[in-house]
Specification:
Length: 238
């Protein structure tokens, strides 16, 4: 077995384990963490009393308990209880204000597990791409590493309940992972910054850092601020 194939197999097992960890966490989430849609009742049943002078088949008028002042007409059905002199009829349910949409509240442990799975899947994609490239041309398959990375959540979204107040799709999970990655990066920077100060580079010169912004595939983007100096051409010496 080639080293490329062995590495790809090991990384595949690793991301599969992390995937199962995420699935178990999804199944264990509570309704507070994954709020569900509230079911709306379109009709409700009410009991109607039969007047003394009316019998089965006669039309009577009764008041709608949900709408003050509204009168409804109905024929007394054959299944009416003529001993108790009443029967049940369905009327439109009262309109209620829609509750505010509740956002999903993933626990911290799940966000971390989701991030670990995402990284493990990406590592496997790279290894699988290297394995594919190492094969003879006739044995290579159509495998594009970056395209394959985009498929990491295709199966996972099927593990979530279907009746959530805020539906979960691939873009939603990508956003959660980006936020977790960003939070992790900030935590590490704070940790490194408090570990004993940053000294100068070789020769006593201060190290300079540059930030590079890479656009992501999404519908929401963070704002970037620029300085006038960023657009000024540096004058060449001499």
């Amino acid at each position: 077995m080639s080293k490329e194939r062995e590495k790809a197999m090991q990384l595949r097992k690793a991301y599969k384990r992390k995937y199962q960890t995420c699935v178990k966490m999804i199944k264990d989430m509570t309704s507070e963490e994954l709020p569900k849609k509230q079911k709306k009742k379109s009709m409700m049943k009410v009991s109607v009393n039969i007047p003394p002078d009316k019998s089965i088949g006669d039309e009577i008028t009764f008041g709608n308990p949900n709408v003050p002042g509204q009168k409804l007409k109905v024929k007394i059905p054959k299944k009416a209880d003529m001993i108790k002199r009443n029967f049940v009829v369905s009327v439109p349910a009262p309109k209620v204000k829609e509750a505010e949409i509740k956002e999903n509240n993933f626990p911290k442990e799940f966000k971390e597990a989701l991030h670990h799975y995402s990284c493990a899947y990406d590592d496997w994609c790279v290894a699988e791409g290297e394995l594919n490239d190492s094969l003879p041309a006739k044995k290579r398959k159509q495998f594009k590493t970056n395209a394959e990375k985009l498929k990491k959540f295709d199966e996972m979204i099927k593990e979530f309940p279907k009746n959530l107040a805020t539906p979960i799709d691939v873009s939603y999970l990508r956003k959660v992972v980006r936020q977790e990655r960003s939070n992790k990066s900030r935590r590490e920077k704070r940790k490194d910054g408090g570990a004993g100060g940053g000294g100068g580079g070789a020769g006593g010169e201060a190290e300079q850092e540059s930030e590079m912004y890479v656009p992501q595939k999404d519908t929401e983007f963070s704002s970037i601020s620029f300085r006038m100096a960023d657009f000024e051409k540096k004058k060449k010496k001499g």
